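Field reference: sequence -> structure
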Amino acid sequence: VQLQESGGGSVQAGGSLRLTCTASGFTFDDADVGWYRQAPGKECELVSSIDSDGTPYYADSVKGRFTISIDNARHTVSLQANSLKPEDTAVYYCAAVGIKEYYSWVGRLCGHWGQGTQVTVSS
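Structure field:
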């Protein structure tokens, strides 16, 4: 399974970015998909996920600012990140693992599915 993240960049606080996770050679049918991030010196954390039935999950730190969505063909999963804060600065990764299985995959998420995309938010 190969996933590719894109859409990162450098923005000022309050700005927006749209991150995209693209599956290579398969679709996300029957799969939960999560967006994770890892800042320097910090652990990998779950930011948001979407279940196979479309139910979203958001970490408290991004609730109300980030929106996860999946295209109809279940080929790409996007994360719309609005009102970005400096503490959102991290490398963002996607994985075919959502909130339900998150704790079973700790240590095998950030950097294990794709190369990630850097998000830098300046104050």
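Note: The radius of gyration is 13 Å.
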